[in-house]
């Protein structure tokens, strides 16, 4: 917990160990409001759409920007696994990062305020979540026992109180909720005003809908599983990129004994996307997920899957075998999952240690 205490000093937490990944098609004026929190960190900007368009980034930020031409140049034929004209392209930023941690945020997410009116440093809360353990094997009714003012309740097994490493910190949103198109259509004016001051570990064996617009993760622990799939241009589905990554990641975290937290921090989601456009993107996914969820609920990974890469390749094999009959798209997606891992390993060669494990 010493690392968390460091937040009380003037040095930003994990300043040299974390990249902020932002997918965008527009000028990044929204960074001005995040300047007090983001400026000390390195940004990786993944420009979607027309690569000839110039994206303006406010002065004073340390960043690298990749457009489609850069992605094609770096990955060559393997660039086919990176989505085009969809925010799923953000996962290219995860691949080229060399840092231990990633925070990713959408460009329509602004700084939120807590009930006292204080601006929320979302990045700092994600870091706190990631640097403290998770408790996926036994639910604590006071939520995160490692937060100030909380602990394990009576009846919580002492043998489980050490917890497990936290791989993912999943944040939430005030204002525009992350609804699917049918819900948007029937509740067009609904806004989320409920600020719940809680962080909890998602229990082992429980899936969840992961939203990629306010997300932190430990890249060294789970990075290769954070593939946002094939979405957007030329694909029959959209808006399931983060869902797919979340389902794959949760299954692998459960297998590897890692934890995922959800709850704080909140961001202010400023802009509702068009529900009719969303419905067109989601239409097939709404049907398909009724078969996808049982697949992920029942999938098992063999014991010899001892790395995230091995787990992910095994998942790809099972996706092809069991979901290929749902639609040909899943055969294509399974192939892209394999390509993703090949590209990841090319850009992130492992160091084999003396004991045979990798670093």
Automatic annotation (TrEMBL):
Ranges in a coiled coil: none
Gene Ontology MF term list: UDP-arabinopyranose mutase activity
InterPro entries: Nucleotide-diphossugar_trans, RGP, RGP_fam
Function field: Probable UDP-L-arabinose mutase involved in the biosynthesis of cell wall non-cellulosic polysaccharides.
Family statement drawn from the similarity comment of this UniProt entry: Belongs to the RGP family.
Site (Required for activity): 154, 161
Protein's recorded name: UDP-arabinopyranose mutase
Species this protein is from: Fraxinus pennsylvanica
Enzyme Commission identifier(s): 5.4.99.30
Catalytic activity: UDP-beta-L-arabinofuranose = UDP-beta-L-arabinopyranose
One GO term (biological process): UDP-L-arabinose metabolic process
Keywords: Cell wall biogenesis/degradation, Glycoprotein, Golgi apparatus, Isomerase
Domain of life according to the entry: Eukaryota
Gene Ontology annotations for the cellular component aspect, listed alphabetically: cytosol; Golgi apparatus
